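Before going further, learn to read the protein records used in this course. The integers have meaning only within a learned vocabulary of local backbone shapes. The record below shows the convention in full.
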Amino acid sequence: MQSKENILSCTEEVRVRFNETDPLGIVWHGHYIVYFEDGREAFGRQHGLTYLDIQKAGYVTPIVKSTCEHFLPLKYGETFKIVTTFVNSTSAKLIYRYELFNGNNKLVCSGETIQVFLDSDNNLCLYNPEFFQAWKDKMGL
């Protein structure tokens, strides 16, 4: 459960590129997972938890679960917002929720990803790595 007082999120604006669409000009469903990645990257830059920071600390964070629900289509040339929210957990994992909003501020898509920590020997971490716990403490989580 996440406290409403310490919600960390980030909003990134993206424009749909031609290569992301099908012949009808509608974004192919598989690209929404890429948009989630765009959101995670922006979140990391804004809040000091980038993949390079994680790698520098000696860890990788593969995705073990992703969900995506589609409500409205995005089309070539449209600009949309990705709102990425970190979900605090006591477990050693990164949980992000995503909401994509079109130019009319209507919800287009929502989803979630879960990533786990693996050390340099590819062992699953059962406890928060020290650098991650320090980041959470700094963020008030």
Notes: DSSP finds three helices and five strands in the chain. The first strand starts at residue 8 and ends at 15. The mean pLDDT is 95. Strands lie at 8-15, 63-70, 79-87, 93-101, 107-116.
